[in-house]
Amino acid sequence: MKIKIDVNNTEHELAVEANTLLVTVLREHLQLTGAHVGCDTSQCGACTVHLDGRAVKSCAVLALQVADSKVVTIEGIGEVDNLHPMQSAFREYHALQCGFCTPGMIMQAIDLVTHEENLDREKIRQGLEGNLCRCTGYHNIVSAIESVVDKA
Amino acid sequence: MYSFDYHKPAVLDQALDLFKSADDPIFLAGGMTLIPTMKQRLAAPTDVIDLSGLDELRGIALSDRVLSIGALTTHNEVASHPLVAQHLPVLAQLAATIGDNQVRNRGTIGGSIANSDPAADYPAALIGLGGVVVTQSRSIAGDDFFLDLFETALHPCELITRIDFPLPDRAAYAKFRNQASGYAVVGALVADFQGKIRVGITGAGPCACRAIGIENELMQNLSIDVLDHVEVPDAGFNSDIHASAEYRAHLVKVLTKRALKQVLDQNS
Ligand code: FES
Ligand code: FES
Hints:
The structure holds 2 protein chains of 2 kinds.
Chain A lengths: L1 E6 L2 E6 L6 H8 L18 E4 L2 E4 L12 E3 L12 H8 L9 H14 L5 H7 L11 H13 L1
Parallel strand pairs in A: 1-5
Antiparallel strand pairs in A: 1-2, 3-4, 3-5
Helix pairs in contact in A: 2-5, 3-5
Chain B lengths: L4 E3 L4 H10 L3 E4 L5 H6 L7 E4 L9 E4 L2 E5 L4 H6 L1 H6 L1 H7 L5 H6 L2 H7 L6 H7 L3 E4 L3 E3 L4 E3 L2 E2 L7 E7 L3 E8 L6 E10 L2 E7 L6 E2 L1 H9 L24 H21 L3
Parallel strand pairs in B: 1-3, 2-3
Antiparallel strand pairs in B: 4-5, 5-10, 6-7, 6-10, 8-9, 11-12, 12-13, 13-14
Bound molecules: FE2/S2 (inorganic) cluster (2 copies).
The site of one FE2/S2 (inorganic) cluster has 11 residues of chain A, from loops.
């Protein structure tokens, strides 16, 4: 089936199978490999992107479901020399080690600071429930997000 | 995932026609259970009918002390909607504990209820609040809705359009969460409708149910102590890697107490 999909404010016309996942379209059709695939069971959150402004797991959405929606990936939020504040905070607070979970963490973190009120460390931790990190122990990730909340 | 045909109808009748003319169709709402299940090849429908274009399945409205929630309303929409926060805060709190944030952004109340997962949260609310499931053709009392593990009173081509919740004077939900999945090992919703007490339990048995024995005790004497003497038989309860039937029976009591404590702390 042919679909039009808006990714990072660019419209793409693509032919996809009904059983193609959004994450596959991003990574394999559009070469946007920032959204990672860390699991087979929709549990790790490494594939998190924004769909109409909210964080979703792109491995649990069919490409055809997003035909009329706007998708934003980690590639769409900042540039190497002009990072998104959340990206800068992750760098500043050493909130990553291997970096595999980081794109998903950052997209989730932006959703949290945009939509949740009175975020404290505990609420940030709860908010990250859908994102697994095997390296950092989460502590610095929470600090990075907290610093963005404090600045806002 | 096996291959299938994808449809996205614009109106309800079209969705039903598509369903009737397909071999082995399935309705897709938020997809938070269905898509992972299809990825695991545990479901292989021939036709997936995406309901997201059906605006008649959306919206939250209040009339006559009944809060109606459209089937396609996501968990995060329920958790953050001002009408829910004001009139049925217990439902907002419950919705905010479902799964994780990404799941709450996609998963829907209609999908959760239609699935009748034994560990889902919404079924406890449907039962505990005495809600009504409205479909394209009839209304089904929450008490009659869940039949068994993943089995409901819905006919194959029947679609939930909205859920109606009568407003209690006070209510609370307590759950014992599986740390990994966020699903309820057991959850208890206690509601007080002018002295008539309802207790909805999820997670304990094959599907959500009322705790009638506990309700009767509480209607005689609305106190936490009364629950110390209630027997909760574990016959028919689930036993799995997360908890034994015996432990679940214990949790039914503990969580009902916790919810009741919150209820008693609220002014009616
Ligand atoms: S790849 Fe793990 S949740 Fe999507
Ligand atoms: S930094 Fe390695 S998984 Fe999170």
